[in-house]
Structures are given as C-alpha cells and as structure tokens.
Amino acid sequence: MGSKERIARLKEDTRSNILDASLEIVKEEGWQALSMRKIADKIEYTAPIIYEYFENKEGILLELTRQGYVILNQEVKKAMNVETDAEKQLEDMWIAYWNFAFAHKELYQLMYGVEMNCCYQKKAFPEAVHANNLFYNKIREVMTAENPEEELVCRKFYTFWSIIHGLISINLVNKGRGQEMNEQILHDAIKGIIKYIND
Amino acid sequence: MGSKERIARLKEDTRSNILDASLEIVKEEGWQALSMRKIADKIEYTAPIIYEYFENKEGILLELTRQGYVILNQEVKKAMNVETDAEKQLEDMWIAYWNFAFAHKELYQLMYGVEMNCCYQKKAFPEAVHANNLFYNKIREVMTAENPEEELVCRKFYTFWSIIHGLISINLVNKGRGQEMNEQILHDAIKGIIKYIND
DNA sequence: TACATTTGTCTAACACTGTTAAATAATATA
DNA sequence: TATATTATTTAACAGTGTTAGACAAATGTA
Questions:
Q1: Are B112 and A169 an interchain contact pair (Cβ–Cβ within 8 Å)?
Q2: Do B116 and A172 touch (CB under 8 A)?
Q3: Which chain A positions have a beta carbon within 8 Å of B98's beta carbon?
Q4: What is the pLDDT of residue B120?
Q5: Which of A1, B28, B108, B120 sits at 20 to 30 Å (Cα–Cα) from A74?
Q6: Is A77 on the interface with B (CB under 8 A)?
Q7: Are A167 and A185 within 8 A, CB to CB?
Q8: Which of residues 99-158 of A touch B (CB under 8 A)?
Q9: Which of A161-175, B55-69, B110-124 has the highest average model confidence (pLDDT)?
Q10: Higher pLDDT, A90 or A189
Q11: B81-110 as b/e: b if 16+ CB within 10 A
Q12: DSSP string, B75-139
C-alpha cells in the first residue's frame, strides 16, 4: 500500500521531468524546436508516454504558462513587501514584472504571445527603418531644444513606440477591453507623452 | 521578344497570387494553418512550384513583412500631411500606426512577432487574474480619490501594462537598444505614469 | 518539318511533426 | 506459478517543409 504512494511520487516526478525537459529544450533551441520526440529523448522514454501525463502538447504549454504566472505572482508579491510607501511599492512591483520577463524570457513569451524567433534581420529592411525614421524625425521636430541629444530623441521614440505597441499587442492577444477604452487610453497616452516630451 | 515580357508578367502574377493566397489563408485560419500545400491548392498548382518563386516558406513571410512596412509607411506619411502643427502631426501619425495594426492584424502580427492563436483561455487562469489584481489593487491604493471609478483604475492599469509590456516585447523581439537605455525608459515611464495618475 | 533544348510542372520521396491503436514487456495480485 | 494490471514501445496515420528526378510543353535551331 505504501508502494502506491511511492509510485504516485515517481509518476509526479516524470511529469515534472517532462516540464523541465521542455523548458530546457526551449531555452536551448527556441519554442519552434520543441517536439514531443525531443522531450521523450530527454527524459529517456518514447513519445507516446507523454500522453499519459498530458492530454497533448498544448497541455504541456498550458501547464508551463500556469507555472509562469505562479512565479510572476511570487516575484510581484515579494517586491510589494519591501517598501511601505504605496507609490514606491507600485514602482517596485512593475520593476519586478520587468525583471521576471527577462529572467524567464521563454515563459514570458509563452504567457503573453511574444515571438522572438523569426526576426533574423527584419530590422535590416529599408522599409522598416524608413517607418521608424518618420516618427524619429517628427519627434525631433517637436522637441523645443535646438539640437536635442540623439539619445534623448531615441528614448522618446521608444517610449512612444512601447506604449502603443504594448496596447496593440495586448488587444490582439487578449482581445482587450472594448474599443472605446482603448482609444481613450491611446489618446491619453499620446497626449501625455507629447506634453511630457519637453521636460 | 514581346512574349518574353508577357511571360515575365505572368510569372509576376503567380508570384503575387502566392502572396495573396497566403494572406487569405492566414485571415481565414491563422498563421499556424498556413502550409505550402494549402497555398498551392489555392493557386491551383502543386507545392514544389512555389519554390520557383520563393526560396522557401520563410521567403514568403519575409516578403509579406516587407509589404506590411510599405503599407505602414504610406499610412503614416499620409497622416503626417493632414495638419500643419508638428504636435498634431505626431499624434496623427501614431493614430495611423494604431489603425494600421488593426486594419492589417495579420501583417502587424508578422512584422512585430505578436502571436494571437494559442490563448483560448489563458485569461481564465486564476493565477493570471491574481497577478493582474495585485497591480489593480495597488493602483487603486495610490489613487488619491476615496472611491476612484473602476473604469479609471482599469485605464491606469492598462496604461501601465501597455508601456511595460510593449517595452519588454520590443526588447525580446528586436533585441533592443542596450540595457542602460531600457532601464532609463522604464524608470521614466513608471515615474511619469505614477505622477500622471492623479490628474 | 524534324530535332534539340530549354522551360514549366508534377510525382515521389525524405525527414520531420503531433497523435493514436495495438502489441509487448514488466509488474502486481491471486 | 498463473492471471490480471500496468507500463512502455512499436507501428502507423496524416500532416508538415523541402528536394530530386521524371515528364510534358514550349521554344529555338537546322
């Protein structure tokens, strides 16, 4: 009867091994390289037994996503309990969020649908550079300083781009909150940053 | 001799057909459903001839990405030439960027690595909701109003989340500009929004 | 017109993918 | 030891991207 528990523990072990192996493969070769047979190889089994532990490949990804949120929660909670001032707490929490994203790139990717594979040179596209330059130049024009430092223009550009791209991404992935609120946020953000641009 | 050009025109036609068919499939079934054989079916050929027009599947995606940037450039440029005031121009340009993203969701996805397939319920994860609530509550706490309208708290939360997620995404996908500038932007943005939170 | 050459297109195959059913090996139960 | 149960594997299916070789159609050449 005690062996029942031992076996259950072993089963739990290989389940955990599957998840670990998956993440290891992804860290080494990226998400697109993750295959059932590769996972099986790593845990020294054949592919079909994975289906004893997970419904399918998506099941593995879902569990990894869940684990990602668990870690994120821990980190954010931990960061929240350092300072006492609420504003400082909020700042620390977002920084914890940021740090989580880079400490667990693969999980963040999975959780929020951020691909990072297929962009060998997309940046080398003259067309892509051109699009950026349009904004870049206009921002420089808006800045009141005669010759604003290039680094400052760059920062402003990325601030703009980040918030707008972020808002778009969240909406495309999460289907977002209705269009009215989005446009409200969008306009607020743009106006806010433009105001903020010369301080 | 004239037939040479006619044939070249025909070849250019099927090349364009391949791109159109691809985009059509993606709009109907999503990026993960795009396959060479499906494209071939749509243009009434067999798969191997596609390789006469594109090096491989990635080549098709690259060309579609390029086309995306061309359209984006047009839209932004058009938006830039409506008003005369530089600040208003900048605002219009970002709104054009926003509109492009939703008018050409599939292209935007491809250009900036935004997955939108595998999120059936990720939002239903209690763990995911929990992470959001931590921020949600803290923002409410920071807001000076006794009982800030829920809709306002929500907007602030999405503004925060957008800029930070956007900054992260851009860095994960584009490898970004060095870490120093990122942290500069991050801190600026967070402090700026916190300041902006009670106006 | 007759042959040769290039061009266009397809068939068949390879190595891979996720997934399932059936056969086998290992274990526990009687 | 014989039986029943569980663990694991083999074999297969349908799909993927991609390539080589066969075949047909059009072209150029004599």
A1: yes
A2: yes
A3: 164, 167-168, 186
A4: 53
A5: B120
A6: yes
A7: yes
A8: 101-102, 105, 108-109, 111-119, 122-123, 125, 127-128, 130-131, 134-135, 138-139, 141-142, 151, 154-155, 158
A9: B55-69
A10: A90
A11: eeeeebbebbbbbbbbbbebbeebbbbbbb
A12: HHHHHHTT-SSHHHHHHHHHHHHHHHHHHTHHHHHHHHTB--SS-SSGGG-HHHHHHHHHHHHHH
Q: Which is more confidently placed, B15 or B115?
A: B15
> Residue A114's beta-bridge partner residues?
B114
**What CATH number was assigned to the domain covering residues B1-54?**
1.10.10.60
Residue B114 pairs in a beta bridge with A114
Q: Tell me, what DSSP letter sits at residue A52?
A: G
Tokens 């763990």 found at = B127
Asked if the model's pLDDT at residue A18 lies above 50, the reply is: yes
| A33-37, A157-161, B17-21: range with lowest mean pLDDT | A157-161
What are the structure tokens assigned to B186, written together? Answer: 């991050």
The domains of chain A are located at 1-54, 63-195
Per the CB < 8 A criterion, the answer to whether A54 and A18 are in contact is yes
